[in-house]
Amino acid sequence: MATTREFKTEVQQLLNLMIHSLYSNRDIFLRELIANAADAIDKARFESLTTPELAREWQIRLSIDKDAKTLTISDNGIGMTEEEVVENIGTIAKSGTKAFLKMLEEQEDNKEPLPELIGQFGVGFYSAFMVASKVELVTKKAGSELPAVKWTSSGEGSYEIDADTRTEQGTTITLHLKDDAAQYLDSWKIGEIVRRYSDFIAYPIVLPTKKVNEDKTETVEDKVLNSQKAIWLRKSSEITEEEYRSFYGHLSHMGGDYLKAIHISAEGTSEFKALLFLPKEAPFNLLMPEIQKKGLQLYVRRVFITDECKELIPDYLRFVAGVVDSSDLPLNVSREILQENPQLRRIEKAVVSRVLSELRKMLENEREAYAGFFREFGRILKEGIHTDYANAEKLKDLVMYESMNTEPGKMITLEEYVTAMPESQKEIYYITGEKREAVASSPALEYFRAQGYDVLFMTDPIDDWIMQQMFQYKKKSFKSVDKGDFEVEGAEEMIKQAQEKFAKLLEFLKTTLGDSVSEVRFSARLTDSPCCLITEGNALSPHLERLFKAMHQ
Ligand code: ADP
Ligand code: MG
């Protein structure tokens, strides 16, 4: 018996958006639905490794009915039970969609959200309502006794759920196209969209297509629209820019552009192929870990195993998108096995080492591109200094900072800093703070300026934390200029004299300031300013203090 249910408020908000305002690139609805079909087949294929009855001739079928004005997308993948349909499609349990809506609310001008964002937030299915006035979904869960389910909605307030007689596993989605979406009834147009967005999908995407025979009779034949080529197995010289870009879009869910594609072909103890991408721009949700995709896709001999395999890449490289195809792992690896697998550890090691060496190469040969990359992702990369002990030295070579001697916006590496140090300078000096303007005017810099020593400006919120592990670079220790005191030549004598001469002033300041400071003392560090505030050697820096406050700690 059919039941009608209301959409959750958030879903309805999203649907309104799909129906009324997202017109910029409607073609992507097909990419989203095909991606879902392919995901569903990936899952069924994975299950079939242990439950052979579920194996099929995997296929995604499209069909067009010009009279009924419908476009259908059908797969023989995992399917859904009624409960799953309600959970996945009627309710939004996913944080991604909530975050998406929040971002829209916060957007000041009423600009259209970028179409790339739809995929990024995992609200793919609803994009069907950009082109359809009514959507029907019929689905049967693979290997389940439960009856098939039919879900219908026009995207306005409610949806209907009913039983269906379908017996074959998989899902069929029928789009009743809006009048202004009639172009999606054109098989040529559909072919073009599939080739543009979904060419690398590993399963045939089939569209029955009319063919005029030699004797002028017409027949309908299945036509495979995509090449299904596993791009990571091909030579880089044979892959076009466009192919890279479309594969990157599929992998990253970030849209946008990539900066570098990295092919790895490893032989020996661990045999695998990988295609990794460094992104060009950070997504705005980069620092929101709950919706940030992590990990790489894992395939075993071209069979999809899992998305977001965290064991293949450390957190501090989470901006890297890519796929790893292993020749060594068994096909029926379970997720538990993945967690402690020495093969995966070896792959991860190779992946990290290669990414770091590519970054190093870029720093040496494409300075501007690297600086741009570092501005976007540097604060994530730096985490590695704290977390990846084995690669900490390599990471130190990759970090960049502005400094007292750089123009605003220009950065130097630690190596460059050390090379420029005058002989008398023994330590690497730095100052942490919120932004350049704030640290650049600190009186704590005066002494160093007078000595001809440069001071690194560390203005990332996490710099203080990173500095706890920095220790040394090229045998030089790091020293914060606003912590503790410094050895200034002749300081002792100067301070002694001052103490005698200005004993009363010191007394006066101490009693006036009372508890708001722990000490008032003379310093030899200042050249122009009368005084400066400093933090005791092992106390929290003012910046870190602010950071902890912000985190309510
Ligand atoms: P995402 O693909 O990012 O999870 P979607 O909105 O595209 O988000 O899909 C929501 C969910 O609906 C999917 O995660 C999946 O569980 C389910 N789903 C969608 N299409 C299919 C399909 N063809 N077969 C099985 N499940 C599907
Ligand atoms: Mg999807």
TrEMBL record:
Pfam families tied to this protein: HATPase_c_3, HSP90
Residue stretches making up the Histidine kinase/HSP90-like ATPase domain: 25-181
GO cellular component: cytoplasm
Record keyword ATP-binding present: yes
SMART domains assigned to the protein according to its UniProt record, in alphabetical order: HATPase_c (SM00387)
Binding site for ATP: 32, 36, 75, 80, 88, 94-96, 120-125, 171, 335
GO molecular function, one term: unfolded protein binding
Keywords: ATP-binding, Chaperone, Cytoplasm, Nucleotide-binding, Stress response
Cited NCBIfam families: PRK05218.1
Protein name, as recorded: Chaperone protein HtpG
Source species of the chain: Victivallis lenta
